[in-house]
Write a structure and sequence with these properties.
This protein is of the alpha/beta class. It contains 6 helices and 7 strands, in the order E-H-E-H-E-H-E-H-H-E-H-E-E. Strands 3-2-4-5-1-6-7 form a 7-stranded mixed beta sheet, sandwiched between helices. Helix 4 crosses helix 6 and helix 5 packs parallel to helix 6. The longest helix is centred in the last third of the chain and has 20 residues. It is globular.
Length: 175
């Protein structure tokens, strides 16, 4: 079971995802963000304060599919927060490659994640980044394009998809 929760910044995505996950006894919070500065450290601390103490946390900025595929997590619900940061990490990690290779590599990782989710219980949080203005530089446009394609891939694979707007979750797909 894959549930995808998509929305803009501060739209209530993570809060809604955490509410969905509270019904499960064993939850693994898969954090994709790296603590790179003071502001990010505060965001991470706030996210930690907002989730139950009994949830296991795994921090993994790149190899998300490998974590989801772990056999020892088969009985847990895995909450990935968030896909957007992970895609950014992949783009940054492979920044020395040509743009087409960055895109192909990132989208292969997304396909690996979809495969790893089969037979698991996964809730994935992601941003909608394509609704704004066209970014002014090539790298930002590449990120936006990769991210949009990644969201489409995840949404196709998901049993349920929600969009959050102003803190209100709206189901847009259910199979």
């Amino acid at each position: 079971m894959l549930i995808l929760i998509i929305g803009g910044a501060r739209s209530g995505k993570s809060r809604f995802a955490q509410e969905l996950c509270k019904a499960y006894e064993k939850v693994v919070y898969l954090a994709t963000c790296e603590n790179i500065d003071e502001e990010m450290a505060e965001r991470i601390a706030q996210h930690k304060r907002n989730r139950p103490d009994n949830w296991q946390t795994i921090e993994e900025p790149i190899n998300v599919a490998d974590v989801v595929a772990r056999d020892e997590l088969a009985e847990s619900l895995i909450l990935i927060d968030c896909i957007t940061v992970w895609i950014g990490n992949l783009c940054h990690y492979h920044r020395d490659l040509p743009a087409k290779e960055i895109q192909a590599t990132a989208l292969r990782e997304v396909e690996r994640l979809v495969a790893a989710c089969r037979g698991k219980r996964v809730v994935a949080v992601t941003n909608e980044v394509g609704s704004g203005i066209v970014p002014e530089n090539a790298l930002a446009r590449l990120f936006r394009d990769i991210h949009g394609l990644a969201n489409q891939t995840l949404a196709r694979a998901a049993e349920q998809v929600y969009i959050t707007v102003a803190g209100i979750p709206i189901e847009i797909k259910s199979t």
